[in-house]
Amino acid sequence: MFLLPSALAVRPEAKPARASRGRVEIRNLTKLYPGSDMHALKDITITTEPGEFVVVVGPSGCGKSTLLHLVAGLLAPTSGEIYLDGHRVDGPGPERAMVFQEHGLFPWLNASQNIEFGLKMTGVPKAARREAVARALEMVHLSHAADMYIHQLSGGMKQRIAIARALVMDPAVLLMDEPFAALDAQTRTLLHEQMQELAVQTHKSVLFVTHSVGEAVRLADRIIVLHSHPGRIRREIRVSLPQPRHVDSHEVNAVVGIVRKEIEDEVNRVHSQMARVA
Ligand SMILES: Nc1ncnc2c1ncn2[C@@H]1O[C@H](COP(=O)(O)OP(=O)(O)OP(=O)(O)O)[C@@H](O)[C@H]1O
Ligand SMILES: [Mg+2]
User: Fold this and answer.
1) Residue 101 lies in a domain
2) Do residues 113 and 165 lie in contact, with contact meaning Cβ atoms separated by under 8 Å?
3) 80 CA to middle of ligand 2, Å?
4) Does 184 share its domain with 251?
């Protein structure tokens, strides 16, 4: 698969035919951690369409990471179900790849070997692995870094290798928990561009968590604002602005304002609830 250089904007009409997989159905999902008296998530129902880029935002502690971990199958729900393309999620699986804030790359392997690792584990033959790794490196514009070790990469390069490692498994859905949170503003902007290109080129479904409202509006087809204590859906906002979006544009800023207001109202609601309890 060939990816356009980041300087070349990908126009919305360049989107390939809609993806045929990556439909996530979350039905009445509830999570109560053992020993806790407050639900981390309560009665969450969301369906994401194949190829859709869904971003989850909300105040700290509202259950965003819990939601991703449940979809990844790393946590079991207290009640409710999750289906991916009609198959019930009951544990981790290669069709759901997770990218964390901390890249989690192996320091004793070079960039290519890190990307190759999952393919090796699943018994993919060497020649096919080599080809897939080269393609994944190309997708994140890091072909030149194939032989570099993790300590030789910048923060942004590490995250791109982590994304390549997830993409190489050809998952139906990418689950991303604040993947760019630790990066500086310029690197983030570059990765937003590349992430949006990847979404267009691969037409992967993405479930993405962030604290940055600008990032959410830059990338999302749909934004889900969570309510906290317990985590519920407060509002869904469809972002139908054409891509690529410019963070400083009037249209983007208008949506940012709407999402920010929802989160601020939610934070104020939690504070006044706490004040009443105290
Ligand atoms: N392993 C755990 N055991 C008990 N409670 C937990 C556990 N993990 C998370 N929680 C609680 O569940 C709630 C949701 O946590 P979660 O980490 O999903 O929030 P978040 O929205 O990702 O927050 P942040 O924005 O700070 O990353 C919080 O109240 C948290 O304290
Ligand atoms: Mg979190």
Assistant:
1) no
2) no
3) 21
4) yes
